[in-house]
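#lab-general

N.A. 3:47 PM
ok so I finally got the sequence cleaned up, no stray characters, all 247 residues accounted for. can someone with queue access submit it? mine expired

B.Y. 3:52 PM
send it over

N.A. 3:53 PM
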Amino acid sequence: MYMNCISYASNYHRLSFSHNSEIVSSLSYEAFAMSATKPGSRKRASESERAKLDKNKRSATDNFDLDLDFDLSDDIKGIVSALHLIRDKAQKDGQKKNEETISSVGSEIKSMIEGLKSKIEKDRQSFAKALSKSSKEYESSLKNETAKFQALHENFCKEKATSLQSLKDIISKFEEEKEKLFVRYEQLRKKERVMISEQEKACNDKIAQLEESLKKKKQDDKTFSILRKTLGSFLESASDEEFPPDD
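B.Y. 4:20 PM
back already:
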């Protein structure tokens, strides 16, 4: 029975050592493959390998626990110690590979971040230059348009002042002419009134003279008629006395 246990342990030792060697070789190969792939793929492969390694560790530990249930000899304990050493070495190698992978991924991520920062900084500087150029062009255009508007405004104000002054002069001249015309009109009215009054007076005087003359003429005509009648009567009586009827 003792020999059977030793034989079983030796066979188990060879199998376990071969299995762990395969695990280490597999880890080395997968670590090399992971280093050639993208950071995300290496990380997923590392996690998968770590899970597989943990599973193998648990399986080996369970087997060791089963073996330890027996009354093992020192040889078997040595084999178990060797297996533990192999397992620890595999764990350390895997941890080292994981650390190297993490460091490599971190370096690549850092490089990507630095490149992205550099690109963002270049884009920001380009945008700042374009914005500064646009601002200068806008400011120059605004100054030119402001100067043009100011000149037009000043010209308009001058023309407005000139037009207003001309309008005021015209209105003032019109008022003066109106006053002159009004004064002249009043003078003409007074003159007309005086002339009309003089004409009325002259006409009244002439009418009075004519009436007086007519009255005097009528009186003369009446006197002449009386004189004629008297003279006629006198002549008739004288002719009857001095001349005979045949004459």
